[in-house]
Input
Amino acid sequence: MLNRVADGLFWIGRYMERAENHTRLISTVYHLSTQRTKRNDIAHWQHLLRLIGNENDFLNSYSEVSESNVLHYVTLRADNQNSIRSCIHIARNNMRQLREKMPSECWDTLNSLYLWINEQTVNDINAETPYIFYKKIQEQLSSFQGTLYATMMRDKEFHFIESGKCLERADNGLRMLQAIHFSLTVECPKSDYSFLLALLKSVNGYESYRRVYADKISMQTVVEFLMLHPTFPRSTCYSLQILESHLRSLVTQQSNQNFLHNKVLSHVGKVHAELLCMDKANFTVERLGEHLHHLIESCDMIGLMIDRHFFHEEVVSA
Amino acid sequence: MDLNAYKYEGSQFYDEVYDAGGNIRPHYSKLMEQLAQMAPYHVMQKQLAIEKQMQEEGVTYTLYSATQGHMLERTIPFDMIPNIIPSAEWANLRAGLVQRVKALNAFIKDVYHEQEIIRDGIIEREMVVANTYFCREMMHLDVPQDMYIAVSGIDLIRNEHGEYFVLEDNLRSPSGFSYLFKGRSLMTNLFPEWYFAHDIRDVQPSIDRFLSVLKQLAPNGKANPTIGLLTPGSYNSAYFEHMFLAQQMGIHLVEGRDMVVNNNKVYIRNMSGLQQVDVLYRRIDDDFLDPLAFRPDSMLGVAGLMNAYRSGNIALANAPGTGVADDKAIYAFVPDMIRYYLNEEPILKNVPTYILSRAEEREHVLAHLPEMVVKETSLSGGYGMLIGPKASEQEIALFAEKIREHPERYIAQPTISLSRCPVIKDAQLTPRHIDIRAFVLSGSQEVRVIPGGLTRVAMREGSLVVNSSQGGGVKDTWVLSE
Output
């Protein structure tokens, strides 16, 4: 496989996962905001802005933090690199350059989504109600993932997409936790755990969480669940474990062993092992920030190493 | 749908569906019957479904928008009424195309070796060696299997009596395959009841033929060669086609930057190392193939490719320098080539062509410019043309001046009124001019013609220009089985 193709596939995985995470999150936050007691409470929207995009960037282009402005910015705005539309655009344009490597049905589903989202306006979001609108995006994204699973050969192409997806999922989860932790500690320590709950719901983890922790919802247990649960498919720990297995498949499918590729694999294993050594006690408000910071750095490092050793290494042997 | 509103206009043009008496030709009777039963609303819906499917599947060509500053992806207009060709008619065309391509290949081999056709006085030396596409680097270079034009596209038209003529040979890197295959899958998906009511030659096996032709080119008869399709990249207007062909044949889609030449062998830079390429189906022009041999500023090619080619380590489809034979002036000599190399009479007719460097022919053409089509010999895609009957007096005067200045750059042909075939417009039938690009695949063991080819339509009323770059559309082409 060509380096640039591998690179493209990896980022298709990342951006499609990012689009999905953001869709879930926006939808959940929207529902939180409908439950608010005070009118004109814009805290939720400010929070969302910080999670997806940049508040200053937002204020440069919009007059005020309002529901429809924020929904537009995080969903449809072209120059917000993190908006759902941008994620889909980047993934689609990447795929356009390597279409022949993927089943055409995968292209068809992604391209339909791309054509559809190009036509949407913020009025459509409101007209359809955000609940239905984001559900539609969610369904189309799931349809893409389903098509991928049902049609792709389990070879390098597949493992690259999946690696991107897993790394993005781990990274995204950690960043969300970091943002929430920040607001709990620095901004309004008195705030309830509604955001944590929202995060739990956004990863569709509320019901699973309830099956594991029957008694109470506390920050420590929610964080433990989201980071460490060994079988919850969107936990950090599980994502890293699957990332490791896809990278391992990539390395073993190679005809000649490359020690740099093995090094990447070892690094992922190390981060995964660090997580496995943690427990609830690490996740007090005081200590959580430090751990999150360290883990996010580790994920960045994994990304850098994959980029350098898989996509930019010139192999000279003939 | 009301078929009677269709204006086929008797004998001025050959109509594919109606004969001069206004009766539906037998091979169209079933289709027209089915069409008559469709409600106009239903027709509109199908038209929308076609467009939607092409958008979703990304069957597009790219063009650069200066106003918006980025690339736009456009679908080509696809018309639902197929161009139907009866089997006997096709058999004759097929034989003529095979014959023509064989002679052209022999001609290219000859001009790059002994040049016997020049020595025997059939073609003037200057016409060959002063040709823009004559490639000196190819002199005395033996190409794998002596196959210069593995892939060619021959454009066919019909005059007012329905006689077929060859309008143009495209021997460099003809495009249009993807529209042919996608057009067929659109028709079978959206009009199964039409498709199954006719006995139509399948085009899908042609993909295998294409692949086997490329395989046969492999140097030293290597059994399982590595094949690449060399594309200029995703900004090229035909990128979809490159992607499509690579995907369908399961060959590598590569850009120049993905390859490297080492020790006169060409390799793809793979993640796991270098992989040697044996056959390259290239979709970039000669000039850009190798910055060391041709244009030094080319970013699209592979440095050292020509040396590898010269060393016999890679096959190129098509070979560099094939353009010398699809020049519009050389075209006039193809019937002579067929007689010279194959000792056969040409099966397909040429459009009579005046060579303007000959004084006598030039004066005749200048006197009859309003009736002529004048073409610049080295341009294609419908550019640099004068269509006499449609041109203004100023345009004609301008062209006359250009011809006097550089007669060797132009040829002229009498205007042939291309045949017409109905298209759907606003849920009604309306006539448009068409031509057919037939695709010929030549391997060392066989020469194959894809049954049907690509029917191109001039979508503007009265227009004779069918090129997609100038607003042309396409139709599916049905060759009926015997």
Observations:
- The radius of gyration of chain A is 20 Å.
- Chain A is about 75% helix and 0% strand.
